[in-house]
Amino acid sequence: xxxxxxxxxxxxxxxxxxxxxxxxxxxxxxxxxxxxxxxxxxxxxxxxxxxxxxxxxxxxxxxxxxxxxxxxxxxxxxxxxxxxxxxxxxxxxxxxxxxxxxxxxxxxxxxx
Length: 112
Known about the structure:
Blueprint: H1 2-22, H2 32-45, E1 70-76, E2 79-85, E3 92-97, E4 103-107
Antiparallel strand pairs: 1-2, 2-3, 3-4
């Protein structure tokens, strides 16, 4: 029984580490839906840290953002441009996400 538990634990660890490495920096081009998730996650992270983007650190009201509040509106210079609307205040933030899945800009006005 102990041996079975050890084998299962090893499989869980190996499977988990394989998934982490599969989603590393060089896994290719992300989909539109993945870009939406990156934008939602980025906005949430910006409620506790300033990443140096134009909008700075966001207030706690942005913690409630979900992927349903994010819309892909354009592709600019090879980057996804996503609009994130706060459901209660109607404030809008525009997030640019690279095709590899990195948020590179956040502004309060739509980039042209």
